[in-house]
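User: Can you fold this complex?
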Amino acid sequence: MQLAIIGLGRMGANIARRLMRGGHQIIAFDHNQRAIDSLAEEGATTAISLQDAATKLSRPRIFWIMLPAGAPTESTIDALLDLASPGDILIDGGNSFYKDDIRRAKICSAKGILYVDVGTSGGIWGLERGFCMTIGGKRASVDHLDPIFETLAPGLGTISRTPGRIDNGSEDSRAEKGYVHAGPPGSGHFVKMVHNGIEYGLMQAYAEGFDVLKGRSSDKLAEDERFDLNLTDIAEVWRRGSVISSWLLDLSAAALAENHTLDTYSGRVADSGEGHWTIEAAMEECVAVHVLSAALFTRFRSRVEGTFGDKLLSAMRFGFGGHVEIPQ
Amino acid sequence: MQLAIIGLGRMGANIARRLMRGGHQIIAFDHNQRAIDSLAEEGATTAISLQDAATKLSRPRIFWIMLPAGAPTESTIDALLDLASPGDILIDGGNSFYKDDIRRAKICSAKGILYVDVGTSGGIWGLERGFCMTIGGKRASVDHLDPIFETLAPGLGTISRTPGRIDNGSEDSRAEKGYVHAGPPGSGHFVKMVHNGIEYGLMQAYAEGFDVLKGRSSDKLAEDERFDLNLTDIAEVWRRGSVISSWLLDLSAAALAENHTLDTYSGRVADSGEGHWTIEAAMEECVAVHVLSAALFTRFRSRVEGTFGDKLLSAMRFGFGGHVEIPQ
Amino acid sequence: MQLAIIGLGRMGANIARRLMRGGHQIIAFDHNQRAIDSLAEEGATTAISLQDAATKLSRPRIFWIMLPAGAPTESTIDALLDLASPGDILIDGGNSFYKDDIRRAKICSAKGILYVDVGTSGGIWGLERGFCMTIGGKRASVDHLDPIFETLAPGLGTISRTPGRIDNGSEDSRAEKGYVHAGPPGSGHFVKMVHNGIEYGLMQAYAEGFDVLKGRSSDKLAEDERFDLNLTDIAEVWRRGSVISSWLLDLSAAALAENHTLDTYSGRVADSGEGHWTIEAAMEECVAVHVLSAALFTRFRSRVEGTFGDKLLSAMRFGFGGHVEIPQ
Amino acid sequence: MQLAIIGLGRMGANIARRLMRGGHQIIAFDHNQRAIDSLAEEGATTAISLQDAATKLSRPRIFWIMLPAGAPTESTIDALLDLASPGDILIDGGNSFYKDDIRRAKICSAKGILYVDVGTSGGIWGLERGFCMTIGGKRASVDHLDPIFETLAPGLGTISRTPGRIDNGSEDSRAEKGYVHAGPPGSGHFVKMVHNGIEYGLMQAYAEGFDVLKGRSSDKLAEDERFDLNLTDIAEVWRRGSVISSWLLDLSAAALAENHTLDTYSGRVADSGEGHWTIEAAMEECVAVHVLSAALFTRFRSRVEGTFGDKLLSAMRFGFGGHVEIPQ
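Assistant: Here's the predicted assembly.
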């Protein structure tokens, strides 16, 4: 199929590449000319503006927007709403908030334009491994785009099939290939958001476990209860046959193999919006998310030194007990 | 009554003082001679050793041990077990682990010695306000010691009586005076331990609330959603008529009145054993303690910079997304 | 002063009463005629509609809205915007979301109407104890309303003054009387929201502590480590001299005095919006709120039986270990 | 090699089988005669008692104990201490508490007996997939047993090797085959314990995520923000190309493929000791484990209806606000 990719960052460029390798025709646009040039060398048609991209596409036109969530995506969609004609399809493949999708889909719908939101996981590995996608939008538009999704997705690959899974029509056969039509507009990003929420929780479980392993070498412990464990080997051994094997563990093992102490990292951990939005969604639904929230808060905490709250604790301790906290 | 106070630190000295003011006769012993001298000036009889204290007491002898939990208390009790005679009473008024009380009470019992554990709250304010005490031990020994406890306790004071509370014999009338016979040996310290567990939780609730108030001035927020709140006034206003008024809030208000920024504190917060033991007890009982544990862990976290776990998070993020965490 | 009270529920009626007792003149309106009649007997002027209330007030008119947050408050403010004239003051004394205040204050401002948000704590006890109030709005309007706030507030009362607090102008002298001008529109409700967030955390700390006390009677524990504690007495004893004394503990002691087992409660606990909004605010500010969130999630969990997540845990356990979970 | 397997439950029998398939000679003992008979049919030599097993082994004798932690393991080790001679090796392959290993290793050492603790992961899948093992004990004994461990372990298999991992002697080459010598006695079980702690955290992260997905169909949400998601397909799609792919997700996908609603499970989730011990170890080390503890507490909570703590919350809410909680 033919489609424009708007936004050629790490993710957008790889999506364009994987699609071109699969025989699709790409019109590439980005504010960064070098990003466009790089894709052009690999076979993409270039566009010098959204308008130009719109002109170069045959109808119904497909625009795949791959930009940071928030203002960049929002303003691009606004611009495309002016350029697009009834029947055209706007795909937001970034990490937009699902309620923004719901709002935009309504605006598009009023103009006869189709809106599809794609939650895309796979990070920088997607070019090679394929992208895992959860898709929101009307059935007809999602089905129309199927050749694109099939190319981007990992496919069955070498991963064993789920025992007991049957294709009797109640399930979506695309799921086994790594993409799925989740539901109406917004649902694609909603599922991706929860994916990231889970990701935070999984990561924090490993982080805490490795902290407990590392803490065992503390000289405050009794000598025979103190172990100086090789974390690199432990991460490796858990990759085979253990209950906690996972891709995140594979990545941890690789990081530890490269640098046993991880001392190139400061320990200040960023978070993008999805962890936050997952907690909000859970609160709207009255669902308890102790682990997902703790994972997010731990990241917040990692970026601060000496919170005001901690100082207040010391102040209270001094107040009732005369405890003097050791200054920093 | 006549009793020996072993350990004249902040708490022990004030207990001795409040007892002397109530007409009791104190034999004072400590490894620090100045601590003994200071009490002697206020009317205490001095002892130069545990042996000396034992000699100066009439029978049945009462030893109130007020030492740090662990080795200091343990070795003193060992020594007193040799000095004491059947009918004598050992009181551990410190913060011992309740399972240590259970073990010691059995050893004492085999020798005809009585063992009483007293969980003592009130901090440095106890001399003035009285000490809140929860007492474990055999009924007879606890009843025998009642004059001591009554003197130490706050009494009814100016605190309003609980509506609906009736003295029909099912409740312990001492509770209204600020002390209570909780149950068999160990139960006094068990209840005090849970008290401290709750204390951690309450403190952390205030700490987080004030952090949210303070965080509202962040210049990352939209200008009209940003407030520069006077935390000193807010702590003060909540002292009157609000649902969250408490003694800990009183102390917070006083600390903030003295220093609005609390910048004399580093934010590294210590913990004593009780918070930890409360979680252990909860786990033995299969009771969920999300808040009490989070309060303890927050203190652990306050004393570290850049945990290994946080570094591992960054390493994974780099692994799957090529995210480069900003170095410290 | 003269003001209309719109909404005569538990809180609104008591506010009207306390104001009348303080010599203020009340125009009372509610959709429930009986609520109006009841206030009329106590001296209020009645209104049969918002329009009628507006007519009966002299200018500048003061409307105190005391309705459930959300639609009831929103529609009333919409109606009053039509009835009000420049210089009139709308007070939202309910539990509105602070961002709604910010939005409404802008709309009011464009019409020359003043908007004041009052976070009101004190529950059903406010009539007697006074209401603790945190107020958002422009200084001139807050100052104009001072006689109203002073009457409603608890005043200095019998609560001891904060040591170290000085009235040197840097602090708000109103704070000691139980009300404070927190800042611009929205800040009054923001502070009240955080108050409620803290309230959830405090309550959960007590709840967990009492659960640990109660769990100690479990017959799964070793016999000498098992205590059958009198929770009623323990709540009572902690009211005097302990570090964890508070108004919430007073209420707990009263509830336990009335019913030791609390078996009239199902254990399904509601939550209003403030706990949720506090977590949202914290996430906007990147502030870690482990305790406040855990307190909220525990309430969510209390209202469900057998979550899907828990079933999934059992399914995984069966998957890797053949563990068969005991059916309900 | 020749060794006795003591305890032929699910795990012990499969270990025996995998060893026999690898050419090792097994003396099988269990209190259940049918378990012994079943192994005998597959080639094991049978023993009618520990004494008999000891007699049938050539020296140095190797006893692999695979029994429930606690009393069964403890009493068997006591019995073997009497039967064993210097140079014999006792292996505890169960889930013992690591401090028990440390204690036992000392007792064994005094008698010239070698003690090795093996943390064994892999559940019922180990026969097929191989067992992931972390081993504690003296180097000489662990090296001597290497043929056994190599047979039991998964080996390199089809799992891709960790990029950057080099065998320059600083790492243990066995880790890539799925087993590792972790350190001195106790360290094998310690690492396995943390493995299970992490396992709880991972499982809970998925459980919460799926709860958020499921909760999105709630009719309390606005209609266009409500999604009726196919959880079976979503679990499946995340298996390919997503960041959160893992073996636990594979198991979840299989469980959901078999039963979309998981309604055969009650939602009451058991826990074995390791989750609890991991938290204890973390507290000893002052390491914050918000996620691992929350995962454990959620299981505790899943097994209770209407906690006392929740009732106390309702009682307080009634106390300050007159809120009447809806009875069950």
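Chain A touches chain C through 20 residues (CB under 8 Å). Residues 187-215 of chain A form the longest helix (29 residues).
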